[in-house]
Amino acid sequence: MANSPSGDSMTDRIVRVLETFTAERSMQSASEIGRRAGLPSSTAHRIVDELVAAGLLERDEDRRVHLGMRLWELALRGSTALRLRQAALPHMEAVQALIREHTQLAVLEQDEALFLERLSHPDAGANITRVAGRLPLHASSSGIVLLAHAPGELRDRVLASPLRAVSPETVTDAARLRRILAEVRRAGVAVAPGWIESVSTGVAVPIRDAGEVVAALSVVLPREAPPEPAITALRAAVRDIELALRADRR
Ligand code: PHB
């Protein structure tokens, strides 16, 4: 792959262009993209033109660009995320119908919890998770489940990094988190009251595929709600999701 005078490859530059898009910043001009990606304007305009021609970016009448549907199509095709989502969705619907609060599916991705799916009830309370959004591993119930079952090396790295407080109740003490992670492995559930927002409690359980924890299934409850009915519903759903994953492997 041809390198630029600064030594970065074409792939590096394309990735930097794509990464300038966020949930809050979904439309940008080529100049804005260039500035945010740290690329010369002419380079940014050329890469954007080529990505638009390939359908990975789309351009509207006022020449602002957004991520293309083709990118979504390619990213999902045959992906682990799609397989998990398809196995989980009917059973997430069952949890949501029973508990009538937000139900979500998350995986471990680059030391964060990445949310693949979220179902919401019209009467459900606050929830900051977004599909294709992320939360810190140490601060969310899903993240704690994923961290509890992650390789020891990853756990050590996360616990040794600065542990940001998302709310005043987020646990940021590494020694206390280690004890919590051990308890989550023992109990098979994580309950995170007020760790993300003081008004809500996250409750999450692990999903296994071929013996390995591959995802976390969670609900976000109003802070005052008891977690037990949600734990029962999540565990029942996980049994069915694990059966669906096993059937899919055959
Ligand atoms: C959690 O998983 O702990 C969680 C996620 C989103 C919220 C609250 C809690 O808004």
UniProtKB/TrEMBL annotation:
Family annotation (Gene3D superfamilies): 3.30.450.40, Winged helix-like DNA-binding domain superfamily/Winged helix DNA-binding domain
Domain of life: Bacteria
Domain IclR-ED: 70-247
Record Pfam families: HTH_IclR, IclR_C
Keywords: DNA-binding, Transcription, Transcription regulation
Keyword Transcription regulation: yes
InterPro entries: GAF-like_dom_sf, HTH_MetabolicPath_Reg, Tscrpt_reg_IclR_C, Tscrpt_reg_IclR_N, WH-like_DNA-bd_sf, WH_DNA-bd_sf
Keyword Transcription: yes
Full protein name: IclR family transcriptional regulator
Lineage of the species this protein comes from: Bacteria, Bacillati, Actinomycetota, Actinomycetes, Micrococcales
